[in-house]
Amino acid sequence: MRRKIENGKVVKYIPLDYFSNLEVETAKELDSLIINKIKDVLKKLKQAGLLENKKHDLAFWYLLGKGINELIESSEFKKLEIPEYDLKGVFDGIENAARIELHIFENLKESERQNTFLRNHIYRAYKLAQFPEGYVKKVGSWDTWREFLERPIFDRDPTLLRKLLDSYLKKYNKQIERKTAREIIKLVNKKLRGYNTRYMPSDVLDKIIEEIIDTVDQY
């Protein structure tokens, strides 16, 4: 790791000659794929009239997330054979491209940027778009979805989140408010902390989910 001065600050960096030719070419191909996809998303956002709202609502993040999923699932991306543990770097690259092309995150101070993977807006948009669009709208706002998508237990077991949401919608038949989402998460942490829900018997897990939804406070 080397150091250099940028804007009066010492920054650490890795020199280009540290990497093999193959790694450099892979990085260039990845950058090209990311930029092209973000430009494609930008075009679709403009067509949908979603760039005017500076708060970037649910439709904005869903469309962006859909583009990211298309990128990750594309044959061109898979050809690069990027290991799963390097995906954070991929999402950092997507965030940088989105900042430049879509002009989002521009006003965030460094201290305000979400520096944990699950709190990264780009990663949450990616996970959001793995649900059907109609279902996403039925569940609630972007703020509500953010509460769920940044929780490690749901990242480890997306099926658990879907079961909770299905159970809530079936019982109450209305959107989930952000405060209600937080209450659900508190109950999940209380009743399921320490359990690997992917290996729990389905009937046991379903009973716990039913108890959570039955006892959640309504706002």
Structural overview:
This protein has 219 residues and is mainly alpha-helical. The protein has two domains: 21-130, no CATH class; 142-219, no CATH class. It contains eleven helices and two strands. A two-stranded antiparallel sheet has the order 1-2. Helix 2 packs across helix 5 (121-128) and helix 9 crosses helix 11 (202-215). The longest helix has 27 residues, at 21-47. The protein is globular and about 55 Å long. The model is unreliable at 1-5 and 10-16 (pLDDT under 50).
Helices and strands, with pairings:
Layout: E1 2-6, E2 9-13, H1 21-47, H2 58-73, H3 75-79, H4 87-101, H5 121-128, H6 133-139, H7 142-149, H8 152-156, H9 158-172, H10 178-192, H11 202-215
Antiparallel strand pairs: 1-2
Helix pairs in contact: 1-2, 1-4, 2-5, 7-10, 9-11, 10-11
Count of structural domains: 2
Tertiary shape: globular
Strand content: under 5%
Total helical elements: 11
Return the average pLDDT rounded to an integer: 83
Query: What radius of gyration results from the CA coordinates?
Result: 20 Å
Query: Which structural category fits the helices and strands?
Result: mainly alpha
If strands are numbered along the chain, what order do they take across the biggest sheet?
A: 1-2
Q: Tell me about the biggest sheet?
A: 2 strands, antiparallel
- Which segments are poorly predicted (pLDDT under 50) over 5 or more consecutive residues? 1-5, 10-16
Q: Helix and strand succession? A: EEHHHHHHHHHHH
Give the end-to-end Cα distance, rounded to a whole number of Å. Answer: 52 Å
Percent range of helical residues: 55-70%
Number of strands: 2
